[in-house]
């Protein structure tokens, strides 16, 4: 329930509504408008490639080597974004903070990015879509990307003064996610209403479980 409702103080209760899909309480790091269905990818690590393996020290002896390393990172990141584009991936959902080089090439190749998602938000998206996070820098980065989720819409949403990401997924299970936008004059009122609704949903779950048995 915590990931499927958003409290908005400062608005009348009558402004409350139910929206299809989920509302992520994060602004887009990059937003590239697109029409129709698109593919989304979940990632749990920075997409900027590393120069060494874990536990291996990388020593730069000169400014020239340092600049060459930066160019290699940029080329590798650009190649990844081209690969995503060729697989019709237009949205990255990341639990990790992505670096500027990733944001730059995402914008260049038309890939929207939402970063710093919580583990609960990532778990909810995985439950809805049935996909696992993508690991881009394996032995074969050019392989076909199969860990993609179908997104029916992807757009910014303004809740009072807070910018959010509103995303609709094609669900692989009976669960069709909707998000409750709960408005009220102050936070305390919203918290009371949210608690009452959560208790009501819990009661309904128990009721339907008893009927099924």
UniProtKB/TrEMBL annotation:
Q: Please provide the Gene Ontology terms (biological process) for this protein.
A: chaperone-mediated protein complex assembly
Q: Spell out the SUPFAM superfamilies in the cross-references.
A: GroEL apical domain-like
Which InterPro entries did the record assign? BBS10 (IPR042619), GroEL-like_apical_dom_sf (IPR027409), TCP-1-like_intermed_sf (IPR027410)
Q: By what name is this protein known?
A: BBS10 protein
């Amino acid at each position: 329930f915590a990931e499927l409702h958003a409290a908005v103080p400062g608005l009348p209760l009558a402004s409350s509504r139910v929206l299809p899909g989920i509302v992520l309480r994060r602004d887009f790091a990059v937003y590239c408008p697109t029409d129709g269905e698109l593919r989304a990818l979940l990632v749990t690590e920075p997409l900027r490639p590393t120069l060494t393996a874990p536990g291996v020290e990388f020593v730069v002896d000169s400014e020239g080597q340092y600049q060459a390393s930066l160019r290699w990172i940029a080329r590798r990141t650009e190649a990844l974004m081209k690969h995503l584009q060729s697989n019709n991936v237009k949205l990255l959902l990341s639990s990790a903070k992505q670096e500027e080089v990733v944001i730059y090439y995402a914008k260049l190749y038309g890939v929207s990015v939402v970063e710093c998602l919580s583990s609960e938000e990532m778990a909810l998206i995985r439950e809805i879509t049935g996909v696992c996070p993508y690991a881009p820098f394996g032995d074969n980065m050019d392989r076909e990307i199969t860990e993609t989720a179908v997104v029916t819409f992807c757009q910014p949403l303004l809740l009072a003064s807070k910018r959010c990401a509103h995303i609709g997924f094609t669900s692989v299970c009976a669960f069709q996610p909707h998000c409750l936008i709960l408005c009220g004059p102050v936070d305390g009122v919203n918290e009371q209403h949210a608690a009452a609704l959560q208790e009501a949903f819990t009661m309904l779950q128990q009721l339907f479980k008893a009927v099924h048995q």
